[in-house]
Request: fold
Amino acid sequence: MNDDPLISQSNLWLADTLWRLGAVQFGDFTVGRTTVHSPIYVNLRLLIAHPTALARAAHIVQMELQTLQSMRNPQIDPFDLVCGVPFGGLVVGEAFSLASKVPLIYLHPRKDDLDSDVEGIYHPSQTALIMDDLITGGGSIVLTANRLRDEGLFVRDAVVLFDRQSGGHMKLEAAGIRLVSVLTLEVLLTYLRSSGKIGEEWHRKSMTFFEANRGRDLDDR
Reply:
């Protein structure tokens, strides 16, 4: 745990932790099916190898959701279940479930790969909060939401640890889903540059890519 007051805020703690874990890399990457030549790659799955960091991330999500629900005009609806999107979101969702005592469900693909089963205990008319480690274009979250809705569950909100800000927010909004992001690409880059962890060149390249891809209509995760 880092006690530096400059990174005490939840999003800056996550940015610093991902950097220290080696989860933030700079180069030339293809992310998913549609994002090519990205100068930055963020591997949220490295949190799995650090249980303390994963537990704190889940606690941060819990506190953020409680804050949004306690507002005069709540920014997130009450929910009965949390649904982790395999595989990264399933790990985060399980950690959140253990911290919050909210039951976990998830989609399990069938052997024929034509559909998926909803694993866990649930009842039609319950509300599920979808959880993923990151979002790019939002396709995986929308597919998960549609499958849950087929089972009679309500889906109104989704939460991710990291938002690449590449069109996912708009895709979810079009599907009737609000998005809560703990950390965004823009905040991550600003923190890394202001703290001297990266130089001007990588910051400029990454911000240029971010601006060019912000709001793209992607079918990626």
Remarks:
- The chain has a mean pLDDT of 89.
- The domain at 5-213 is CATH 3.40.50.2020 (Rossmann fold).
- The radius of gyration is 17 Å.
